[in-house]
Amino acid sequence: MKYYSRRFIKPEHLNPANALFGGQLLSWIDEEAAIFAACQTRSNSIVTKLISEINFMTPARQGDVLEFGLELVSAGSSSITVRCEVRNKVNHLPVVVIDKMVFVCVDELGRPQSHGLRANVA
């Protein structure tokens, strides 16, 4: 797995327990994974179809730096499946693991369209 980007956890990202708010992290993950999917398909018209079980492993705290790891699992005719791991940059402890995120290429009317990748990449 390659780690593509990093985020610094600031006070405005925290929940009442002084840990990273899960919704904030999920927003970052969706954005990072969509960018990754768009780069794989060379398409800017990508939508999130499915995010499988989200496994929160360890808390992240203010001042931590998170790394976002992404890898292509498979490709259908209009969709691709991505795996995501978010880890602490310093100690490499996993913060979140998502085994399956599905993105679909769509046309201007929101209908699935071919992305041109070969199927079953993994």
Please characterize this protein's 3D structure.
The chain is of the alpha+beta class and 122 residues long. It has a single domain (2-105), classed as Hotdog Thioesterase (Thiol Ester Dehydrase, Chain A). The protein has one helix spanning 22-41; strands spanning 2-8, 46-51, 54-56, 65-75, 79-88, 94-105. Strands 1, 2, 3, 4, 5 and 6 form a six-stranded antiparallel β-sheet that branches. The longest helix has 20 residues, at 22-41. The mean pLDDT is 93.
The radius of gyration computed from the alpha-carbon positions, rounded to a whole number of angstroms, is 15 Å
Q: Tell me about the biggest sheet?
A: 6 strands, antiparallel
Overall geometry:
elongated
* DSSP strand tally: 6
Give the topology string: H per helix, E per strand: EHEEEEE
Name of the CATH first level: Alpha Beta
Entry summary:
With 122 residues, the chain is an alpha+beta fold. 16% of the residues lie in helices and 40% in strands.
Task: Name its key features.
122 residues; alpha+beta; Thiol Ester Dehydrase, Chain A
Give the helix/strand layout.
Layout: E1 2-8, H1 22-41, E2 46-51, E3 54-56, E4 65-75, E5 79-88, E6 94-105
Antiparallel strand pairs: 1-4, 2-6, 3-6, 4-5, 5-6
